[in-house]
Amino acid sequence: MATTSRVPAAVDALLAILRALPALEEVRIVDGPESVNLTDRHRIHVGWAPNAESAVSLQQEWNGAGARTRDEMFAISCYAESRGGDKDMSFRRAKVFELVAAVEQALRATNGAPEAPTLNGTVLWAEVTAGDLSQSMTEGAGAGLAFTVACRARI
Question: In sequence order, what are the beta bridge partners of 16?
Fold first, then answer.
């Protein structure tokens, strides 16, 4: 079956990678926006961020003469959040950056995981590229970090 985009496979692979990370075992990994359960203290959304224009933005172009393969560049919107009934904003802010650090580490190549940046072979590379911190004091301290996982693929 021919594919016109690596986006669906890459999003699924990113979700699987994050759900398998020991560093995130107490974090709820959400596919897209949250629907009902906002009681979890720590969450990472993949394919959604508050005020994001899209779940994934993408562009494609021919990779060379002959029009046989295409390069695809896309950015997956993500959002990490830490909330609690306390007033400790410093803790929440540090925690949300800890969550994104775990994502970033999972996407880095190592001797033990040389394929890490490829999202299980779905893309040529993936990396955390941007972030936007928000904080609120509604029913306790809360911090959120909208971030982007940028990818490049060949189709």
Answer: none
